[in-house]
Design goal:
Layout: H1 2-26, E1 37-42, E2 46-66, E3 72-77, E4 84-85, E5 90-94, H2 97-132, H3 138-171, E6 173-175, E7 180-182, E8 192-193, E9 202-217, H4 218-224, H5 232-238, E10 243-246, E11 257-261, E12 271-279, E13 290-306, E14 310-313, E15 316-322, E16 328-335, E17 343-348, E18 355-357, E19 372-378, H6 382-386
Parallel strand pairs: 1-19
Antiparallel strand pairs: 1-18, 2-9, 2-13, 3-5, 3-8, 4-7, 5-6, 7-9, 9-12, 10-13, 11-12, 13-17, 14-15, 15-16, 16-17
Length: 387
Amino acid sequence: MKINVLITACLTLAAAATMTFVSCGGQQQAPQAQAPAIGVVTVEPTTSELNSSYPATVKGKTDIAIRPQVTGFITKVHVDEGQRVHKGQVLFTLDQVQFQAAVDQAEAAVNAARTAVATAKLTEQNKRMLLDKNIISEYEWQMAANSLSQAQAQLSQAQAGLTTARKNLAYTVVTSPSDGVVGTIPNREGSLASPSSAQPLTTVSDNSEVYAYFSLNEKDILELTDGGKASLAERIASMPAVKLRLADGQLYPLEGKVATVSGVIEGTTGSASVRALFDNPNGMLRSGNTGTIVIPRNNDDVIVIPQKATYEIQNLRYVYTVNDSNKTVSTPIEVLPVNDGKNFVVTSGLKSGDRVVVEGVGTKVRDGIVINPVDKTSAPAAEAAAQ
């Protein structure tokens, strides 16, 4: 009996001790969670260069379709595709037999006409002497004079025919009209060549300089002229040098200059054709090459933020700014449509001195939380800080 009482007393004391411990523990407060350390940048106005890219097609300064001026069979091809030629260099020779025969015939006609003129001249002179002696009438002399005039006209006609025949013979030798590079040669020896053929003998492209053709839409042109406040010619003259990105992704080593912008907007495409001129001393560029025109656009005194610092809701773009209490605030912004793929140029919504979150956007950071801001870099280098 005494043992049971003793056990009961011990259990009571243990329970009381446990209750006392729990009660004391209940009075302790759980430690508060620390604010997360988040990278931020303080934005300041800076200078930014953004590039606009446009698909382009390259053409030689002159692409001349070579066609014969007479019809004949090709007897010799003097050049090969891709060969560089000079002005006046022989490209093709056509069959000359019929044209040489025409020259011989024309020369014979000229000789016959000269003989006829000489005979008519003697006759006219003789008739003149007889007229002076009143042996013949003036009518007879006039007939002789008319015959002389007719013979002289026939000589002129024969000489013109000879000139034409010689030109046609010369046309059988087809030469290059300019320096350049030979294109495709679809017809070889034995093929019939004609001025009316749909396909030229070849094309000679003068690619010492090349044109890169690309298009600007109406919006681009309005931006270029500042909504019509400046003339297109003035803006073209002041445009910076442009670059050409080749099909393999490399930049052409020489910069070009925008030369012209078409004065007509194509109704089907809503764009205007633009031509940029590039020097091509080594012949690296050929007619038919494709690439991308890169136009740099300098923006002064603008705020630049990394794209990773932004998020979109219903086509609106936002950033998280940090107020004086280190609390995040969802802030709408507007940016330029042109960007470099890494940064945005902000046109409204931010001002100099604002702190912008550049880490954890879309993951750790949400609107209205308190953070421990960690200053990273200035806005132009924010992309590096955000990575």
